[in-house]
Amino acid sequence: MSDDNGAVRGIDHDAVSDWLSGRVHDAQPPFRFSLITGGHSNLTYRVVDAKGDVFVLRRPPIGRLLATAHDMAREHRIISALGPTPVPVPPALALCEDEAVNEAPFYVMQFVEGHVLHTAPQTAKLFDEEKRGVIGRSVVQVLADLHNLDPDEIGLGTLGKKEDYIARQLKRWTMQWEGSKTRELPAMEEVGAALRDGIPQQVGAAVVHGDYRLGNMITGEDGEVAAVLDWELCTLGDPLADVGYLLNNWAHPGESGESSPESDPPPSAAPGFQTRQQFLERYSELTGRDTSKVAYYRAFQYWRLAAICEGVLDRYLKGKMGGSVDTDLYKRRVDSLAASAVEMIDSL
User: What span, in angstroms and rounded, lies between the C-alpha atoms of 1 and 322?
Assistant: First the structure.
């Protein structure tokens, strides 16, 4: 995504280069910027300096944004707080809140070596069955480590309200849906009403990632999770929301994930990963939490993801994402997610 002069959309090359030289220790110009493909919300760039050192820069999508979305300072705060904990995150290096530098705030973090796993075929090529078992165990261990943290002790106690997480999320994503929907979809209204009527009692509060899946992690060659990425949706609240979301992406061999049959199945569909039940049992062992009502959280997450995808679709249609996608495919994915949410609600 660059022009003939090497310019990259979303990066003011000279201004950002000057800022990096003065803010990131030992970073030496000239810098080369390239957009890392695969992100559908905040834009992520690979930055290489004159020595060959690699950094990662994150900024919001291009154009006018919905209120409260894409807060770079907040995301930087989260990974800075998690840095000393057992939860692996890329080391945070610097934050720029001066919009005069690049038209929007951004932050820079250290590059972490490893693989971002998106599909079962890709995962099967990179890791044998034994290593896939290691990956699964690491994924549940990191999630448990995250949920076992005391937000107050790590400086994130004021990240958000701790109580009534699901009620707050339902309000937020209903507003996001209404603010970015590209058409009427009755299933979204049906599920939203059912979710509001059946909210489980929240037990305790934890740091909730909001988008916890292998596609938002860097997996090392040893099969261990080397870093968890994309903390823009992180808040405080009911940790079982993360569990429900992950299970929707945790397909068994022969299944598709997120009710998206047009896409390759997710990593866990490759043989060797734990089953959903094994995952839940291990999570309960590590956290002591009751997962018996996880079906509600799965329904909620299908519904929420449909709202998120509709928002991304809206930004692509308006040219705010710095790239292009098959928008008809996106519409079908939103429809499919909404249908899965209905199916899960009907199973309760």
Answer: 8
